[in-house]
Amino acid sequence: MELKTALDSIRTIPDYPKPGIIFKDVTPLLANAKAFQATVLAMNKHLKDEPVIIGIEARGFIFASAMAIQAERAFVPVRKEGKLPYETFSKPYGLEYGQDVIEVHKDAFVGHKSAVIVDDVLATGGTVLATLQLAQQAGVDVTQVIVLLEIASLGGRKRIQNDFPNVTISTLVEV
Length: 175
Fold this sequence. Notes:
The chain is an alpha/beta fold and about 180 residues long. It has six helices and nine strands, in the order H-E-E-H-H-E-H-E-E-E-E-H-E-H-E. The chain has helices spanning about 5, 25-30, 35-45, 60-70, 125-135, 155-165; strands spanning about 10-15, 20-25, 50-55, 75-80, 90-95, 100-105, 115-120, 140-150, 170-175. A seven-stranded mixed β-sheet has the order 5-6-4-3-7-8-9, with helices on both faces. A two-stranded antiparallel sheet has the order 1-2. Helix 3 crosses helix 4 (about 60-70). The radius of gyration is 15 Å and the shape is globular.
């Protein structure tokens, strides 16, 4: 399947999860095996030699874990507060529509020095920034961020580049 056809299956849902938010729903893309495969293969083309792929809860898990399997890399989940059973690093962050906390296991990167972050959507950049800070706290150098879709008008890329100018940001589609 052509990547453009796969990306065209992402639907827009206005006023979700609250009025004024324009939500990009990737579930139709995921429901089509060929679209999902084309997307993962396209995202993996951005990988360099990072041994670890970090996936951000929840939809980032889907893409990151599929990418990790296909590229034969380790997968590390970054989860919402209270979801990981072992010792964690925690980081609060702001969302387009609220506040939250994410965590990663303190020993998640043992034996690894670098990683890439994967998520479905880059909006305000709050989640990615918090994940970059968690990785830094865990002693891992994040070389790049790969996202399926970027909502450029929300300024996430600029926020990330202000704090982490050496991190490359790659997106498949910008809206």
